[in-house]
Amino acid sequence: MSGTKYAKAVGAVRAMESSLLSRNDIDQLIAARSQAELNALLAAKKNTDTPQSTLAEVWELVSNYAPDSAGLKILLYRNDFHNLKAVIKAMIHNRDPKLYYIEPSNVSLELLTEAIGKKEYELLPKHMRKTAEEAYELVTETLDGQLSDSLIDRSCLEAMQLDAKRFGGEFMQKYAELTTIAADIKTAYRCSLMKKQYLFIEKAVCGTSEFERETLARASAEGTDAVFALLESSSYSEAAALLKDSPAKFEKWCDDIIVELAETARMQAFGIEPLAAYYIAKEAEIKDIRILTVCKESGTDSTAITERMRKLYV
């Protein structure tokens, strides 16, 4: 599909980028003396500049510009697979899956519920069918929700990498790779803290060209020092230093490397990349607002809030 098809959409996105929060905007929000003042500033920004305030609204706009782009849909795979976990758990525990469902998503709650409830997995997108069946059987037979979750999380990352190669260009492939690397590091570190065995870890991590699954799993099984040593010997030594210092700082790094990737789409005039970049930028912005709100509610000081703010696209 020719990238010129999205030339008009790219122009519209470029115009909307001016509405993204700037560093000055963030500084004003951080300086708010109360929750009420913060809410007032956010309301003023929404009423004057910001065309979308939720990710669902952002996705509706972006997907309307590129309704047939399979590559763009990869941005929502994590939500899709999260919702798969939510529906399975809700059914097992007789709860309402709406309580755990998140938007935006490629797969509706109604479709997920029907497919799992009736075991008609062919209703689901091809990249989810086998995982849905295996995860449901695993949790119903073993009652091991953690193992089922690990299967779904790994399958999500595998699907992202595979479909990025099939449908996406270099940008989406890098997005899938960075997302997988960040998730694998978190999984390996968490498993090392929990002293999980190699066989469990090997099934939980996905693997990339940077960190092969078996190598990462072995390091995790050996302990946190081995995980740090592996990271320090790679091009992600910065991640090791941050993880040693604070898991929260590492989480921020994970978000920031995705925004840095989005910035590479700035000079592109055609294709879906600017649309994907705008969605990523709004995702980071909305996360910053959520962090700000929680920090203000808990009385966190301005310096600590500033340290937690994610990288801005503008």
Architecture overview:
It is a single chain. With 314 residues, the chain is an all-alpha fold. The chain has 3 domains: 1-68 and 287-314, no CATH class; 70-168, V-type ATP synthase subunit C fold (Up-down Bundle); 175-271. Helices cover 71% and strands 0% of the residues. It is built from 17 helices and no strands. It has helices at residues 7-16, 23-30, 35-48, 55-65, 70-73, 77-92, 109-118, 126-142, 145-167, 170-193, 198-204, 213-222, 224-232, 237-245, 247-263, 273-298, 302-308.
Topology:
Layout: H1 7-16, H2 23-30, H3 35-48, H4 55-65, H5 70-73, H6 77-92, H7 109-118, H8 126-142, H9 145-167, H10 170-193, H11 198-204, H12 213-222, H13 224-232, H14 237-245, H15 247-263, H16 273-298, H17 302-308
Name its key features.
mainly alpha; V-type ATP synthase subunit C fold; 3 domains; 71% helix; 0% strand
Amount of helix: over 70%
Q: What is the name of the CATH architecture of the largest domain?
A: Up-down Bundle
CATH topology of the largest domain: V-type ATP synthase subunit C fold
Sketch the major β-sheet: none
What general outline do the C-alpha atoms trace? globular
**Would you tell me the overall average pLDDT?**
91
Task: Outline the low-pLDDT stretches.
Answer: none
Counting DSSP E segments of at least 2 residues, the number of strands comes to 0
